[in-house]
Amino acid sequence: MLDAAGGRTPSTHPALRHCVALLRLHLASPSLAAAKQLHARALRGGVPPSHPLLAKHLLFHLAALRAPPLRYAVAVLTRVLPDPDPFSLNTVIRIAASSPRPRLALALHARRLAPPDTHTYPPLLQACARLLSLRDGERIHAEVAKNGLATLVFVKNSLVHLYGACGLFESAHRVFDEIPLRERNPVSWNSMLNGFAANGRPNEVLTVFREMMDVDFAPDGFTMVSVLTACAEIGALALGRRVHAYLAKIGLVDNSHVGNALIDLYAKCGSVDDARRFFEEMGTEQTVVSWTSLIVGLAVNGFGKQALELFGVMERKKLVPTEITMVGVLYACSHCGLVDDGFMYFDRMKEEYGITPRIEHLGCMVDLLGRAGKVEEAYDYIVNMPLEPNAVVWRTLLGACAMHKKLELGEAAWARLVELDPGHSGDYVLLSNLYAAVGRWADVHVLRKTMAKDGVRKNPGRSLVELRNSVYEFVMGDRSHPESEQIYKMLAEIAERLRREGYIPRTSNVLADIEEEEKETALNYHSERLAIAFALLKSLPGTPIRIVKNLRVCGDCHTVIKLISKIYDREIIVRDRSRFHHFKSGSCSCKDYW
Asked: Which residues form a coiled coil (predicted)?
């Protein structure tokens, strides 16, 4: 076919037809080098650089790459400006949304180079989610509704993901509920599950999963990672084991992401032997993430030396640790009091593996020094660190000051926290603990009045215990449980047996200016003791008891649980805010260093 000037029309140009055919052929195994060669061949063959068909197929090929080249894709698009077709523009928006520069997707859309269609909005919402830009996301949501596209399932899936990523899990659930049951697909369910999991709502994850199973919707690997994460969060080992059996039944246990989540589950439920056993069963499926999961799991369970030994094995296998691996290694050193080893690994991380220390690594070093009683050195380390210390770093120092009664440095840390993160209830509690520990009760009262005036509420101690596939929650002094009368009778029996063992309450752990007898009563009703009393009543002799607590275990409860493990011949595993304690036969895995 000839055009008016006697030449070939571009769509029938043999070089164009040939290159388009080859670009399609290479889609099964796309290659940037091949795309550039075919692009060059088309141009040498006389195809105009601005030909929309060439741009369309070239961009489609680039989008299929594992790491699409954003700059090249934008250059191809600009060749067909000012009138790119919606397909080409959407393709570049999709590439930008998943690139390290997701804001470019929003910038391209703002230029209105082509009218938006059904495929425009999912990548734009993905870009907003990656940027955690709720404001942009809500603006795009409004535009979607205005254009009559808000009912499309893939748009709603993207909205669920956006709101979940931005922490608005209730908004995410509201959009999810608007999707008709028959239209929900794996992305719908997984976006909702992940939204709840990422926002620390494990019970809601399990509720949505039950809804999913009730309608016979087949889960995939992403589904099960969210479910296992939820089980780990609440310490539901029995439920996690049932999920593991189900995974084996449906053939997902070999999925590497699922495998890593199983290691994490067993480690976070304090079942280190199960975590190690499954890690070994993974065999060739082990990845650096698998090694990291087990190293971190061993470290937080108080088996720091085993964690460091495993890291040595990993190095001998020539596996390269990640930033997270090194956080686990430094954490192991911190919780075992291995100060010199910690600094040795920190130096090796930089020199041998080329990992630039992040604030998490620097925070581990502050924790390492602070736990070891080197509080002045920890302060100097913060002052001279290469990154600006954040609130977590200063909070770590304040915790060390409270532990070691370093008042002046503690007040310095508090001053920085007031600037960086005002109103954080945990900081008030730490400073109050420090004042009380050095006997400055007047300052304690002033601080608590300030908390009340500013509306700052202290998080109450809560403990979870799993029994017979159910998880029970207890709060300090809680009498809401239907069997509270029996629980408090059991507490009285425990108290009597403890006294016969020579136990004397450490009332210094009750940081209030009240009578000694009241302090003893307050200690006896800590949430973990209620949970243990309930577990002793309701479980068979010899059965391990697993507790998850939202706050750090106090020194008195630590002593008491050691004695209970001996008196009642029970292994008791307590996961508190920062680590695990494995109590057995009167001793603890932390060796009283925590």
From this structure: none
